[in-house]
Amino acid sequence: MLRRSDIQIRDPFVVTVPEEGLYYLYGTTDRNAWSGPGTGFDVYRSRDLAHWEGPFPAFRPETGFWGTENFWAPEVHCWRGMYYMFASFKAPGRRRATQILAANGPLGPFRPLSDRPATPPDWECLDGTLYVDRQGDPWIVFCREWLQVTDGEMYALRLSADLTATAGEPVKLFAATEAPWVRSAVYEVSGQEEARGFVTDGPFLFRPAEQELWMLWSSHGDEGYAVGVAKSASGEIEGPWIQEKLPFFRRDGGHGMLFADLEGRLTLALHCPNRTPDERPVFFRVKPEGGTLVISAD
């Protein structure tokens, strides 16, 4: 049995399965996710969010799979009785992209739904997430990399009902610098000289009330990696999107998502700190209050 502090993971994503009384924890689990061949994704399970079984191999690439490196940020969503993983991959000569995979249960094994990613083939993309609109139609919401556009962007793209194909053209939601709190970041790119840009990472959409649609997303602020809140003025995915002036979580942690625990309490998951190999999953009780999210003492 592992404690939370034993698990090195980036981009944590938790699925609660009430009928089993279990939580499943996914994330970027390669020891060095930045370089070298990708191994796959592991999953852990728990009854109390403190003690964990695993790791179990949720995904391992089969012969012929296009992605070979940068296995990042798997999310798992239950949709029409199946479990779908949205995860990012890259390969030499190929753009980084989000692929959709499927399995019969939360432990996997997850296998690609198709032979191609869901994001545009000529764009550098990552961190795709599933959003289902009020008409019941599925979308992928994803980031277009700052490496390609300097000012990172957020997009939405409608999917077919079985998630195997896209339907329509990408809709731009916002750019990173539309948020007043975002600062530029400097990264080493492929062992070469440093590059500077404005990051968009980790979208997660939720409705705090029937007519409202909010998004958690990450970038860099004054105190390091952070999580901000954006709100759709129309309550629909197309926006327009209005950015909170300050990040919700400010200091050296990010790529957040929300889940309801087994008692129905809203919980935030993110990784902190944001340095390898020290990143760990962190959980906070949260609640919408005063027009934003606040960490709850409950």
UniProtKB/TrEMBL annotation:
Annotated GO biological process: carbohydrate metabolic process
Family statement: Belongs to the glycosyl hydrolase 43 family.
Keyword Hydrolase among record annotations: yes
Record-level Gene Ontology MF annotations: hydrolase activity, hydrolyzing O-glycosyl compounds
Annotated metabolic or biological route of this protein: Glycan metabolism; L-arabinan degradation
Keyword Ribosomal protein part of the UniProt annotation: no
Pfam families in UniProt: Glyco_hydro_43
Source organism: Cohnella rhizosphaerae
Keywords tagged on the record: Glycosidase, Hydrolase
Name of the protein described by the UniProt record: Glycoside hydrolase family 43 protein
Top-level taxon of origin: Bacteria
CDD domains: GH43_Bt1873-like (cd08981)
